[in-house]
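Dear colleague,

Thank you for sharing your sequence with our group. We've completed the structure prediction you requested, and as agreed, I am returning the results in plain text so they can be pasted directly into your records. Please verify that the sequence below matches your submission; if there's any discrepancy, let me know and we will rerun it promptly.
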Amino acid sequence: MGNLRDELLKKGLVSEGRARELANRERARKKKLGKRAAADEKATLEQARARQEQARREADRRRELERLDQQAYAEVRARVAQLVGDHAICEGIRGPRKFHFVTRNKTILYLDLNDAAAGQLEDGRAAICEIPGTEPEVFRLVPARIAEKVREIDPTWVRFFEGARPESGNS
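Please find the predicted structure tokens below.
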């Protein structure tokens, strides 16, 4: 108890007389309990400290795993954004046709496309992908090979793609 008393005195939380009084009370309490009870009490306190330390380590471990998950998700989003941004078909696709698709938020949007671009989407030679991290959402037309890569990384960013459907057995 001397160490605690010294710390309390150093920080100015108690006076010298009050610290001595508390130390005397603690000694008297331990003497009254006896050696066996004092040892049991000390063991109980050590077990409680060990449980608290274990809980703290578990919480730290969970936070670290969550941070790593968030970092991995951010890397996936960056890869998808890079792929879609670098390979977007932007030139000469605007036209009178409204090509509708469903967003991740379950709303229906459309792109104004010409017949050639709409035909590429219908034939599975192109796809509509969302660029992650854009607010409001930005959608781009990309070639089928890029849509396949995006789908492998994270399929939620592919909003419309008719290509590479599973075989139905009717050839």
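Summary note from our side: Residues 2 and 37 are 20 Å apart (CA to CA).

Kind regards,
the structure core
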